[in-house]
Specification:
Elements (H helix, E strand, L loop, with lengths): L2 H9 L3 H23 L2 H18 L9 H20 L25 H20 L2 H12 L4 H8 L3 H21 L16
């Protein structure tokens, strides 16, 4: 049964169909939550909250965007609510909880040296992401890690496309600056006029 049929049945109240949708999307939702909140326990709570809200609001889902995009929005909102509620300002990201096929290991198994360098870079990026504003962290996670298009991000965050583009540009510059200051990035400084726009 394809996702469209599962959605149709779930909207009509079929719990089994909704359970199948959860199975299809639970890994992506959990990993998105993990990248937003920084630890497995909170990520599991956020994912559960997002799916609960999806079940409750499914009759109102109009299908203007992909179901996955809508789930990202619900997950994102649940993560932000948790971060605000608990006033978290630090990430205690357990790197061993990140998926093995994460963004820095695409394209096959790394050599031991590449694995070590990749792990160090992942840790530096995780720390850097934690230092960004909520808005900047959200757009970078959605674009660079979850792979959403600018249009999908605009839908997920309910903002203009131009806002998404400018936030991503500013977030990239802010993260690059944090990585440079930590000695983890040797790209050009935005202040010298050679930085990416």
């Amino acid at each position: 049964m394809d996702e469209t049929e599962l959605l149709r049945r779930a909207r009509a109240g079929d719990r089994d169909a909704f359970g199948a949708l959860v199975e299809l999307h639970q890994k992506q939702v959990y990993h998105h939550a993990l990248r937003m909140v920084g630890n497995g326990e909170d990520a599991a709570d956020v994912a559960q909250e997002a799916f609960f809200k999806a079940w409750r609001c499914l009759p109102m889902f109009r299908g203007d965007s992909a179901f996955a995009t809508w789930l990202y929005k619900l997950t994102d909102n649940a993560a932000i609510d948790l971060l605000r509620r608990e006033k978290k300002r630090r990430w205690d990201l357990a790197l061993d909880e990140l998926p093995a096929d994460g963004p820095f290991f695409a394209g096959g198994a790394p050599s031991p040296q590449e694995a070590l360098e990749g792990k160090e870079l992942e840790e530096a990026v995780a720390v850097g992401l934690a230092k960004l504003s909520e808005d900047h962290r959200r757009v970078l996670v959605l674009r660079e890690i979850d792979g959403l298009s600018y249009g999908e991000i605009a839908e997920a965050l309910d903002v203009d496309l131009g806002t998404v583009k400018s936030r991503i540009a500013r977030a990239r510059m802010a993260l690059a600056k944090i990585l440079r200051e930590g000695g983890n990035f040797s790209g050009p400084s935005p202040s010298n006029g050679t930085g990416r726009r």
